[in-house]
């Protein structure tokens, strides 16, 4: 039976690079005592939003991401759930040949709002069946991740999709730059920034989440936004990689260091032993 009560019933729908499931408790320990409106300008898999919602802490909020396909997926789940569920019944094709046919189809309609329902279904399909659940586009904004060869994939948890849609009812969804999204943030609101992380070295530089990437100039622009919000007495939290540049950039604020494993890596031996920082202004 579908649980229509909402609170306490939502799990992430997506596996997402940079997801916060591992440090959710570390983040949760550091949230402000009270807050009004919640902002998450780098939504990704929305695991922190979900955690706050499940603890009955989200009344109204806004999420955003520059990944237009991700935001289309969330909008369809929020506004077009029945059409989404009807469309998904057409495909249950995890084999290699069908994967690449579907990938070609998807790349023909990517970004086209005439096919928003189909795009959303295929987006979830690739999240479950692509190698490591990775989202990556090339310079032409075409999805190019190979088949993952997974067995026993649970594509659609209908109860969870339904409850996820309920959660989004009071959440505004944007496909906008982080600076634009938080412009209206006020005193006692709460903003959580989870940007693409500053790379630890040149070989770890991965910018494929969107075609434009996120370089150190963007990190500095984000810091200015963080500081501007702090000056307005907005509660601000940020997570990023543990490295000299980030420590120096945010040295006037509270910096906590946490241990983390990163699961989206082609080499399982490299999924351990890393650190991240959690920065707050309160």
UniProtKB/TrEMBL annotation:
It comes from the Archaea. InterPro entries: Ade_MeTrfase_dom_2, DNA_methylase_N6_adenine_CS, M_m6A_EcoRV, MeTrfase_D12, SAM-dependent_MTases_sf. Its EC number is 2.1.1.72. It holds the Pfam family MethyltransfD12. Keywords: Methyltransferase, S-adenosyl-L-methionine, Transferase. It catalyses: a 2'-deoxyadenosine in DNA + S-adenosyl-L-methionine = an N(6)-methyl-2'-deoxyadenosine in DNA + S-adenosyl-L-homocysteine + H(+). This is site-specific DNA-methyltransferase (adenine-specific). It comes from Ferroplasma acidarmanus Fer1. The lineage of its organism: Archaea, Methanobacteriati, Thermoplasmatota, Thermoplasmata, Thermoplasmatales.
């Amino acid at each position: 039976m579908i649980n229509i009560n909402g609170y306490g019933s939502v799990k992430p729908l997506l596996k997402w690079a940079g997801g916060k499931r591992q440090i959710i408790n570390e983040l949760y320990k550091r949230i402000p005592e009270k807050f009004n409106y919640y902002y998450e300008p780098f939504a990704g898999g929305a695991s922190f939003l979900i955690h706050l919602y499940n603890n009955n802490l989200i009344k109204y909020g806004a999420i955003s991401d520059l990944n237009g396909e991700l935001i289309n997926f969330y909008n369809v789940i929020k506004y077009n759930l029945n059409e989404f569920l009807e469309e998904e019944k057409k495909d249950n094709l995890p084999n290699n040949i069908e994967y690449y046919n579907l990938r070609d189809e998807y790349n023909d309609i990517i970004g086209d709002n005439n096919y928003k329902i189909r795009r959303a279904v295929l987006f979830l399909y690739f999240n479950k069946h692509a190698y490591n659940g990775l989202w990556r586009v090339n310079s032409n904004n075409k999805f190019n991740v190979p088949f993952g060869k997974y067995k026993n994939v649970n594509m659609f948890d209908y109860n969870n999709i339904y409850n996820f849609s309920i959660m989004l009812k009071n959440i505004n969804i944007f496909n906008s730059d982080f600076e634009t999204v938080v412009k209206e943030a006020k005193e006692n609101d709460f903003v959580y920034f989870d940007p693409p992380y500053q790379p630890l070295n040149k070989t770890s530089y991965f910018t494929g989440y969107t075609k434009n990437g996120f370089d150190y100039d963007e990190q500095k622009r984000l810091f200015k936004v963080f500081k501007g919000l702090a000056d307005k007495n907005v509660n601000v939290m940020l997570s990023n990689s543990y490295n000299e540049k980030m420590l120096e950039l945010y040295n006037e604020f509270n910096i906590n260091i946490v241990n983390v494993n990163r699961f989206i890596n082609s080499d399982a031996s490299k999924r351990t032993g890393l650190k991240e920082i959690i920065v707050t202004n309160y």
